[in-house]
Predict the structure of Antibiotic biosynthesis monooxygenase.
Amino acid sequence: MYSSTFVFAKKQFDDEFHRLDRIIADVAKEIPGYLGEEAWENPSTGLISNVYYWESLEALQALVQHPAHLKAKANQARWLDGYQVIISEVIRTYGDGVLDLPVR
């Protein structure tokens, strides 16, 4: 299993940003191998983090190569004040089973 974490500082979002964001989220959910996602905001830094979980790198690549994702990436400077993407292989998950998260 893999996770792709997109950490960013936002500028001003416009209608095109929200449209592309919805399309990308919908596309991700339709890709075989998509497991789920989480979003976090750090109030002290203002940074936002979106974490997607994937069964394989091929599933992740399907999203990365989608035209809506490529368009958003090409225009990111309009909406973001910096970003970083972290791709990780998930070695293990564990917990008490109480939380309903996309991965277990």
Q: What stands out?
A: The two ends are 11 Å apart (CA to CA).
